[in-house]
Amino acid sequence: MNKGGYSKYIRPLLYGIDLLMVSFFAYFLLTKSFLDIAFIMLFWIVLSFLISVYAIYRFTKITKIISLFFRQTVLLALLVFTYYYITGIFVPKANIINFFLALLLVITTWRVFLFVFFQKYRIITGSNNVYVVIVGLNQSTKKLASFFDNSPEYGYKFRGFFDNRDSSNISGTIEESYSFILENNIDEVYCSTKELSNEQIKELTEFCERNLKVVKFVADDKELFSKNLELDYYNLTPILSLSKIPLDDPIKDLIKRTFDIVFSISVIVLLLSWLIPIIALLIKIESRGPVFFKQHRYGADFNLFLCYKFRSMTPNKESDKMQASKNDARVTRMGKFIRRTSLDELPQFFNVLYGEMSVVGPRPLLMSHTDDYKDKINKFMIRHNVKPGITGLAQISGYRGNIASDLDMLNRVRYDIFYVENWSLILDINIILQTVMNIFKGEDKAY
């Protein structure tokens, strides 16, 4: 989830500025060939993923920032040496060394300056804050609270302890923390693994997932129930987080968004530009009513948006509550054809272009289904950490169409969560190809 207004755009912007610096120094110190510069920029991009050089957060140490960019520029210089050696293009070694030194000096100075600037910005303006509570009281969590209170440059606002023991430091019981978190718009919940039982940790984690809150663990001396944890240090306090969702990384999110824009524009220009008038005419000939069907659905971060489809039913009052079933009398003859071939979903490429949906992602459910199941199925709300898709992993795995039972929804959500937690561009492309194949083969549940 992205919080803080335009802050989600900062990292992609910085990525672009860094690439401009790389290309600038390459042009003036190494080569005038745009092909060579393109390869050098590609080297930088690949290395940034391998080293995670942009995994810099508000609690990151300045020494780590310097270390990350030093490794990045050293490896880039080695790759440049290798590139010119393999291609046989002569470039003086002194030029490559100068390129490395200039880039290291400028980009490291720039990123450290920016990091310090944001720290000062948070102190002066009091903005870009993350509101936190701690569940469980002991020495470790007291140190963490002290870090939050005495380090305003990191932008954490501590709102209280919650524990089931009596203490003047306590804002309420563990059970009371749930309503406090919701009523006070808390962003992150820090949980002591020493003070809480596994069952309490499980309940708190599920609560945070249902309500799109970040949960982290203060690493005491107790064995944790989850294997997928990442270790960070807030000052000297070790903090464990559930493994991050890939698309929480703004760079990966930018890659997916760029793919969505290119793909949706291609479909709109090459296919929908001539297909919409034909389908619209056939829909209007058969039955009265609008060509397009619009319906509110929950999207990323649980925000509502209008989802577009070609109308495949006669206008009816049950469309917001009841999915189409086999031999549904509401479905028109033209509707049966466009539903069976998935042509009814094509207008959603405009949703993709507007940024409300993605080409691939968890399918947006009826609002009534979401309201019914969000408290029934563990981790259900994780599917709302990303944009909904025109197609998805669940759909190509046999779980499309009508949801006839709780088991149907459970299986669909399992595939959705796997997709969210394991996203890659290759996975998206595979899902798209499989979707196209399924359209031509036909599907039993396409009605």
Mean pLDDT: 86
Alpha carbon gyration radius = 26 Å
Strand fraction band? 5-15%
Describe the global form.
flat
Question: How would you characterize this protein structure?
Answer:
This protein is α/β, with parallel strands linked by helices and 447 residues long. It is built from 14 helices and 11 strands. The chain has 3 domains: 121 residues, no CATH class; 115 residues, NAD(P)-binding Rossmann-like Domain (Rossmann fold); 192 residues, no CATH class. It is 51% helix and 13% strand. The protein has a 7-stranded mixed beta sheet with strand order 3-2-1-4-5-7-6. Strand 8 and strand 9 form a beta hairpin. Helix 2 packs across helix 3. The two termini are 34 Å apart. 27% of the residues are buried.
Features:
447 residues; alpha/beta; Rossmann fold; 3 domains; seven-stranded mixed sheet; two-stranded antiparallel sheet; 14 helices; 11 strands; disordered N terminus
A few lines on this structure:
The chain has 447 residues and is α/β, with parallel strands linked by helices. Helices cover 51% and strands 13% of the residues.
